[in-house]
Amino acid sequence: MNDTLKVEDLYVEVEGKEIIKGVTLEIKKGEVIALMGPNGSGKSTLSFALMGHPKYKITKGRILLDGEDITNCSADERARKGLFLSFQYPAEISGITFANFLRSAMNARNPDKKIAVFDFLKLLKEKMKQLSMPEKFAERYLNEGFSGGEKKRAEILQLLLLQPRIALLDETDSGLDIDSLKIVADGVNSAKKDMGILVITHYQRLLNYITPDKIHVFYQGKIIASGDKELAVELEKHGYKKFTGE
């Protein structure tokens, strides 16, 4: 498998209003693609539509994973096929420990190859250490009482354990202090070789630690400019108005 996600001329409506207007992009294994744009440009809408959220209606275009059309697949089907979405605002769920959630997610991802408890705990400790997460976090309820930075590390921990084919990271840098940002970036960089990654962000600062192979500027539901990592520096210097005309 090539582990390639192709988005072809995608249009998306939310409650009857067209938000995404003809997006075409490609994400391949081993690549980091950055999607940058101002608030309200439709970046998160695109990520939810790619993941299959039922609120986001695809009216035109296709989503292909290794050539398979998954446009009409449900969110859980897309997850089992290898798509992963890291949320901008991860939900808190009381009554479910973080460890139980992670093991259940891994087994749902690979139902024919369920992981034994001993092997899971060994892997969990290894990945938590990589992200500087105390082991006690595994026994806390999912995201309950976690700081913003801890929630984002928890999302990256899921990424490292689930090993998706394509990861969509929606503003993973939001609310992170510099230490957490570096740890999260290191986690993303370590995962890059095994998957394709779409990083959605407002700011250039995350890209100081994660070097994208390509950057797309997103505005009013469209890609209006593309380039390499130097484009992020240009955006930081001049702002989005250079490309939006506002």
CATH topology heading of the domain at 4-92 and 166-244: Rossmann fold
Major β-sheet annotation = 6 strands, mixed
Low-confidence stretches: none
Structural class: alpha/beta
Brief descriptors of the model:
Rossmann fold, 246 residues, 30% strand, alpha/beta, 12 strands, globular, four-stranded antiparallel beta sheet, six-stranded mixed beta sheet, 8 helices, single chain
Provide a compact summary of the structure.
This protein is of the alpha/beta class. 34% of the residues lie in helices and 30% in strands. The strands form three sheets. A six-stranded mixed β-sheet has the order 6-9-10-3-11-12, sandwiched between helices. The chain has a four-stranded antiparallel β-sheet with strand order 2-1-4-5. Strands 7-8 form a two-stranded antiparallel sheet.
